[in-house]
Amino acid sequence: MDSQMTIKYGVIEAASLERDLSLWEHLYIAGRMHKPVTPLLPAPPGLLAAAQEANLHNALAAALVLLPPTFTEEELLRTLVGLSYRGDIRLAVGAEDPHKVARIVDGSWDELYSMYMPLLIESGRYSALKLEVVGQVAPTSAMRSGSGANISCRLWRQSKDAEAQGAALQLLAPGLLHEMAARLGYHVPLEHLAPSTSTQKEVVEAAMRSGTPQRLTADSLAAIVRRSSIYQAAAGLLAAGGGKAVQYVGSKMAKAVRPLLAMAIPAGGNSAGSKKQGVS
Which cofactor does it need (predicted)? Predict the structure, then answer.
């Protein structure tokens, strides 16, 4: 670390962190912790551990609702990482790398795998979805670029019948169900949507009656992320000051454009619209 390095950081109360991890009310810090993180200071034993496990289970439930009946483990990890970018205003305005999800999965395959797969396989929480491994696919470059281990990417199948879909919806985070309820015309307190409550069951039944529970889940997730990203962008402008904020947004724009330029300009330096003998 040197004097020229710019660090973006935030401060949050432990109670607010625990609430977002457990409920997905804002899905800001919870979304960041869907990915591997490195604690700078060790947390006291047990502090926030249960909330973070709930956060990862919430992510798995949402990903399984969004995924088709058959999916690979790479598709699962990309869906998990991408949850907190759905609806992100930075992507909408080109201030974020559109390939960021793929880059995170490519660079953190082993860590993501160890975060999520034991929960999926060992918890028994998803038994109603009748998850089973039905095959394997060839390792991708993303998998080979991790620790170098010869990891096989399995092909999974889940049930998408009405009973299984209803069970999957009941596993969603209360904050996500709250957004879904509002879109369905239900105005209920977030606290009434805890697992197994009568209100939660009513909202799940209404979501199933809509005929498009998967789309409803995706749209509701994007709405939460959109609100949060707009708020955070505005807060960042106020906190960083004009110059720093413009510099930061400019760097984000550059990161978004750089991969597109790399694809458009061949290694030899000729642009896609030029000819060897000159440009007509």
Answer: Mg(2+)
Q: Which residue has the higher pLDDT, 277 or 80?
A: 80
Who wins on pLDDT, 88 or 270?
Answer: 88
| The pLDDT of residue 60 is above 50 | yes
Instruction: Indicate whether 4 belongs to any domain.
Output: no
Helix, strand, coil shares of the chain, percent, nearest 5, are 60, 5, 35
Long-range contacts of residues 121-130, Cβ cutoff 8 Å, at least 24 apart: 123/57, 125/57, 125/171, 126/60, 126/61, 126/64, 126/168, 126/171, 128/159, 128/163, 128/164, 128/167, 128/168, 129/64, 129/158, 129/159, 129/164, 129/167, 129/168, 130/157, 130/158, 130/159, 130/164
Q: Is the CB of residue 248 less than 8 Å from the CB of residue 6? A: yes
Instruction: Give the Å distances, CA to CA, from 224 to 85, 86, 88, 127, 219.
Output: 10, 9, 9, 28, 9
pLDDT tens by residue, 129-185: 999 999 998 766 555 454 445 556 899 999 999 999 999 999 999 999 999 999 999
Residue 113 lies in a domain: yes
- Which residue range is the domain that position 196 belongs to? 14-260
- What total number of domains does the chain contain? 1
Question: How many CA atoms are closer than 13 Å to the CA of 207, on its beta-carbon side?
Answer: 32
Within-domain flag for 231: yes
Confirm whether 7 is domain-assigned: no
